[in-house]
Amino acid sequence: MRHRIRTGFAAAAAVLALGLTACSTTPQAPSGSAPSAAEGALTPVRLQLQWVTQGQFAGYFAAVDQGFYTDRGLDVQILEGGVDIVPQTVLAQGQADYAIAWVPKALASREQGAGITDVAQIFQRSGTYQVSFADKAVAAPADLRGKKVGNWGFGNEFELFAGMTQAGVAPTDVTLVQQQFDMQALLNGEIDAAQAMSYNEYAQVLEATNPATGQLYQPSDFSVINWNDVGTAMLQDAIWANTERLADPAYQDTTTRFIAASLQGWAYCRDNVESCRDIVVRAGSTLGASHQLWQVNEVNKLIWPSPAAGAGTIEQSAWDRTVQVALGAKNADGATVLTRQPDAEAYTNEYVTRALDLLKGEGVDVVGANYTPQEVTLNPGGA
């Protein structure tokens, strides 16, 4: 690859340690105006992911690998996330220049004082499912009543609770189970419905062997509740910038160029799924090749087709729905994600609009109106 990609939990822990030992949440001062690539100097940029290296972040790895960041005068270092990494905190404390985080979680951090702003909404749709075996007859949130329902917690559960509330199902109407970040509890029959991401855990059940047939499970073996269909979906992966630094023209310019190159990376992954799978594998993913191909393909579905204005645009209706769920849905402890409306600086389309203008001028398809996902065959264990 052309630029540094810092990976591994040790690296992520080091980032967290730096963030926790910062004496305040005052962001690092920008280093000054960013020279163009033609002038030979590159502006260093640190991107903090919210999880480990995988297809969920393929567009950023592709932008490194294909030189899109370099072409915009940027030297991007990708910082891997992990269990103990809170990307928006790393960003707010000045240990990264941008971060990838789910909108409700980042808004909760902003409500608590983190100076962060959503500058590009990469995922336009939620990737969260609730998955059950078909014989459990859980086709809708109302069917969860009386069932053992797994969820991850840590702010990942609010789409589920909003969907249950909408269906008239109280938390006391189900048996809530703290689920690990895998599907073993579902496969072992310990729970009736499991939380899953379309691009990760759902693939895990389809990579597992059905003991009744000796073959891999098929989609027909399961029922899936998709919160996009229910109407309680929340916005997820977005690019977050440091609010205070956005007052600086140099950081504004870097933000525009970073978004443009990142969106170009995602457009590349839309059109080159296998290539992006290989890029992620080379970057150090520990997941198998067919699993990563599935993941890139499924993530593409969350991005493309994009709004008419272009990928990364923050649509008011989706933002408002996310905020409403974050304000109104209560988890089992009676807590909501947010206690008040986000302020006006919580998001802006200013920089993504500038970035899209650059890409449109260069002939990059930033909408993907004719996008068609691939059919991916999973291998046992995702190999």
Largest sheet: 6 strands, mixed
Provide the β-strand percentage band: 5-15%
> How would you classify the helix and strand content by structural class?
alpha/beta
Amount of helix: 25-40%
Spatially, the strands of the biggest sheet line up as 1-3-2-4-11-5
CATH class of the largest domain, please? Alpha Beta
- Which topology of the largest domain does CATH recognise? D-Maltodextrin-Binding Protein, domain 2
SSE order in H/E notation? EHEHHEHEHEEEHEHEHEHEHHHHH
Globular, elongated, flat, extended or rod-shaped: what is the shape? globular
Q: Low-confidence parts lasting 5 or more residues at pLDDT below 50?
A: 1-38
Number of continuous helical runs: 14
What is the average per-residue confidence, as pLDDT, rounded to a whole number?
A: 91
First CA to last CA: what distance? 23 Å
Radius of gyration: 20 Å
Query: How many separate structural domains?
Result: 2
How would you describe this protein?
The protein folds into two domains: 5-125 and 235-361, Periplasmic binding protein-like II (D-Maltodextrin-Binding Protein, domain 2, 3-Layer(aba) Sandwich), CATH 3.40.190; 128-233, D-Maltodextrin-Binding Protein, domain 2 (3-Layer(aba) Sandwich). The protein has a six-stranded mixed β-sheet with strand order 1-3-2-4-11-5, with helices on both faces. It is built from 14 helices and eleven strands. Strand 7, helix 6 and strand 8 form a beta-alpha-beta unit. The chain is an alpha/beta fold. Helix 2 crosses helix 11 (273-282). The model is unreliable at 1-38 (pLDDT under 50).
